[in-house]
Amino acid sequence: MEVDYVKTLDHYVLEALDHIEPGTPDVSLPESEDTIVTGSQSGFFTGRIIHRFSGRTYVAEMEQQVQHQIDTRSELWEKRHVRGDVTIVSATGSRNVVPIAGYALDKGLPVNLVVCKPDSEMVRMFGRHVKEILIPAPEEPATINTASYGSMIHALAHKGKKEDVARIRGIVKSLPRPFGGYGCFNQYFWIFPDTMPEVADMVEWKMLAEIFGTDIGSISRYRTRLMHGAGIHDSPHKLYISVGVKDDIFGPPERRHHVELPDDLGPLGYLMVGYTIVGQMQRDMGDIRGYPFAERLPGYVQRARGWKWDSPIGPQS
Fold first, then answer.
1. What does the DSSP 8-state code read for residue 136?
2. What is the rounded CA–CA span in Å between residue 211 and residue 234?
3. What 3-state class would DSSP assign to 81?
4. Cα–Cα distances in angstroms (integers) from residue 222 to residues 187, 217, 245, in the given order
5. CA quadruple 173, 179, 184, 190: dihedral sign
6. What does pTM read for this prediction?
7. What is the C-alpha end-to-end distance of the chain, expressed in Å?
8. For the chain, which has fewer Cβ within 10 Å, the N-terminal or C-terminal residue?
9. Do residue 290 and residue 173 come from a single domain?
10. Which is nearest to 187 in space by CA: 229, 155, 234?
11. Is 198 part of a structural domain of the chain?
12. Radius of gyration of the chain measured on its C-alpha atoms
């Protein structure tokens, strides 16, 4: 997709929910006694969500370290007669994840690819040797990936009943803003429940593209950080945001922003809430500073087309 203009992320959340509600397929992963889950950035975190919330046994490893898991667990599975496989989660099925699939296949391991793009690079290269789990999603501007990973979570990360997309839409459309808006601040300290650490990481990836400072994690992660001095420095321009967390344990009361959410909200709901808040920040900041992410994205896309993607699979011993 050519990028001429990118809207704030909350716009793409509503587009994603419009796509998901009419007919995201009900999909199950192939039977397996154990799985190595991997993928690039948000794909990796989505893979963890999919397996954890569907009750699967798995070990998750980011693409740079997955070779070790393939080596050691394949040997262990062979000794113990365990039916294991490798599940790769990627919106496009391209770049760094392709050599991972090749390496796993060379080791004799079944490979599943959870992907949104038909006729992906991985499928073209390995064909029927890879079990393709295609989750249709509309094309989005580069790096947005809201409908893609949201559709994967909705299709795969549930036991029995899926999340209510209409309810999620109502929640994101009525999210409160802090007094004066997010534009009154330039640093944000987010906290998510310990049940949603992957969502915290996915929101962090979105915030890394912005020009304002941020720190994001779940309760346990923050308590550990604070014990090691992460809470020493405060700023009158720092906002403390608790998303679905009832304990106001961070920041001065006048700079706490609590986003109350239903106790039974699932990972899709939390992801869409987190991405909507990022979009609200982009909107409020844009009124003051312009939209640097949206303005620079077309140039980034052009540069990225010329990049050489190094393989995460190193030399074999």
1. -
2. 18
3. coil
4. 16, 6, 12
5. negative
6. 0.93
7. 41
8. C
9. yes
10. 234
11. yes
12. 20
